[in-house]
Design a protein that fits this description.
2 copies of one chain form a homodimer. Helices cover about 40% and strands about 10% of the residues of chain A. Chain A is an alpha/beta fold. Chain A folds into 2 domains: about 15-250, Type I PLP-dependent aspartate aminotransferase-like (Major domain) (Aspartate Aminotransferase, domain 2); about 255-380, Alpha-Beta Complex (Aspartate Aminotransferase, domain 1). In chain A, the strands form 3 sheets. In chain A, strands 1-9-8-5-4-2-3 form a 7-stranded mixed sheet, with helices on both faces. In chain A, helix 1 packs across helix 8 (about 240-250), helix 3 runs parallel beside helix 4 and helix 9 packs parallel to helix 13. The interface between A and B is large, with 64 and 64 residues.
Chain lengths: ~375, ~375
């Protein structure tokens, strides 16, 4: 038996919706299914405006353009993140100021942000690693104090929440000025490649529509607000095909079912492996009080790089595919010289230690049991 | 009866291939169908390397990054083109130097290029308007003389050719250093939104793979050339979902059938409307000797803006949807001040006069007949 790390899953209506899109006569961007998907997400999570994009990367690039990133602007973000968080801003000339991870979690250490702020700082980009919230009260309060933008990298964070200090539960992606989501095939809700920009600060809506439409005021034209449209700003083609949106809508309509299944899998892993943590052999994911778990990812935090390599190899020999995750960006070939010599010990710590286990809708209870027992048998011979 | 301007069409295998992609377990970028589509195009047209992208815009942006466009570099392109031709370079700091259209065709006037070259010129971007080749011998010879890059904007130009001075027929997109194609729903071969970068100069291949993979050397890693991959360059997420590539492959496998049908429609229009040209009422598309016709577009070149408006309106009243096309970019709100006061009379001429008629696979002979007779009845009362 082979258990892949990931396996995309169809809920049933995906190809029927694609056929409908063709029949309706529009499969380019912002067709019927793009509208339905955006409205679904706006209604379910109270996002002010959702704009589908071809990837989370593209949503982050739109954000960089919207906050007008220019040569020399500084952007604070975790080092332990995907390259896209960084590229989106680097492409527009930003200098990245990397923040270390928390001791208890790969997310960025909110207490270390303020010390990184300079007169050139323009934005903070918290990444909700594994769908687990950063401390958004703390981040928003720092941002307000210094007049900075907050762009939530919510690539992992669909259907996850932050419990604020007043006890209100807020959907991730609804708190910063802007937020970016991913529908990549490894995410909870998928469309192969795909993403979404969420706009919470209304002042960005009009320009976002223009930038997304290759710098033209075509959206306003179709709403009848202007009588002809033309080139008015920079922009690109950030719109996904309505084929992608049709696939996505089928997924979204099943989100409650998908989430409940993923949480079941996550809990089965947790219960089956918690003794390893209790016995001091490795750590399981820790979720701060202010965060919820959307079961995006189940990871082990290994004791060492050697332990992780051994686990990957041993699992692979049994047909089970587990994978490591990010490499600290401050240590990357591309950025190490630009970063300087500031140490980020926890970012490097997680670089060497995180191991992700298979987690997908069609993973069976027997398969999870096999993965758990294989891992346990490595430690308890 | 309503005849839309465009109607997407499925050849039959589109959703079956999408289901296959899901079953194979990979619907993110560069899956099985991305490889098959790229190989199909490389083999059919002799392109050195094809990389699918989420849009032609994205392919042009990759080209801008690959030729290392920097603040102040000048890029020569037609004014009568889609905003994406321009945006891709503007986003990276280029100054656009717009070239006028030909007298006989909306494509750029090759004889006017050389006078626009300065020490800052870095590239020429010919646009093969309506799939009709620019004079590539002339353009390549100017580029060679001044050491410039040539990026073919082949958005309209799939399956179209250039007859060079030695009598060789070369596929459009195979001549410049780089070329960009579109698979937008209005094109001959469609995937809703979608595009492709063609690399003819091998020196760009390695970096193109990196830029497309968010600036990582992941492609080399998967080929086993390096033992781990990381962030090595700028980049973005230019890869389309394999869902899109699956849809595209089904289309590509029917390209000969699609092309033959489109040419039939084009010829029916031409034969039915040629008397209007002979009678001096308006003009039909003209195709230079060095170019072929891929039946991407059938357009009328009206006598005046008023005549065009009248035709659009009258056709609309009969349920027939015709559309105008580009607005000169040198006159756009975004660029008019940057362009200066250099007149581009033919770009403005086509802005006011081009009228595109419905042209899609499922357009029936009866419908074409109705469109022709409606237009004829306007002129020959």
């Amino acid at each position: 038996m082979i258990i892949p790390f990931n396996k995309p899953y169809m809920t049933g209506n995906e190809t029927r919706y694609i056929e409908e899109a063709v029949a309706v006569g529009k499969i380019s961007g912002d067709g019927m299914f793009s509208k339905k998907s955006s409205e679904f997400l706006e209604q379910k999570y109270g996002f002010k405006k959702c704009l589908l994009t071809t990837s989370c990367t593209d949503a982050l690039e739109m954000a960089a353009i919207l906050i007008d990133i220019k040569e020399g602007d500084e952007v604070i973000m975790p080092s332990y993140t995907f390259v896209s968080t960084a590229n989106a801003f680097v492409l527009h000339g930003a200098k990245l100021v990397f923040c270390d991870s928390r001791i208890d979690h790969p997310g960025m250490d909110e207490s270390k942000i303020e010390a990184l702020i300079t007169k050139k700082t323009k934005a903070i980009v918290p990444v909700h690693y594994a769908g687990v919230a950063c401390d958004m009260d703390m981040i928003m309060s720092i941002a307000n104090k210094y007049g900075l933008y907050v762009i939530e990298d919510a690539a992992h964070a669909i259907d996850s929440f932050y419990n604020d200090k007043e006890g209100t539960q807020k959907p991730l992606g609804s708190i910063g000025h802007l937020a970016a989501f991913s529908f990549h095939e490894t995410k909870n809700i998928i469309s192969g490649e795909g993403g979404m920009l969420v706009i919470n600060d209304e002042k960005f809506i009009k320009r976002a529509e223009i930038i997304r439409e290759k710098g033209t005021n075509r959206s306003a034209f179709f709403r009848g607000e202007i009588d002809k449209y033309g080139w008015v700003d920079i922009g690109s083609s950030f719109l996904p095909s309505d084929i992608i949106a049709a696939f996505l809508l089928a997924q979204l309509e099943n989100i409650d079912n998908i989430q409940s299944k993923r949480k079941e899998i996550w809990n089965q892993y947790y219960d089956g492996l918690i003794s390893l943590e209790k016995d001091g052999l490795l750590k399981l994911p820790s979720i701060p009080d202010f965060a919820t778990n959307n079961a995006h990812m189940f990871y082990l935090c290994c004791d060492s790089l050697e332990q992780r390599n051994m686990l990957i190899q041993t699992l692979k020999e049994k047909g089970i595919f587990s994978v490591f995750h990010y490499l600290s960006l401050h240590s990357s070939e591309f950025y190490k010289d630009k970063h300087g010599d500031r140490q980020l010990e926890y970012a490097d710590f997680y670089t060497d230690r995180i191991l992700r286990l298979p987690l997908y809708y069609e993973l069976t209870s027997d398969q999870i049991h096999l993965i758990i027992s294989t891992i346990r048998s490595i430690f308890y011979k």
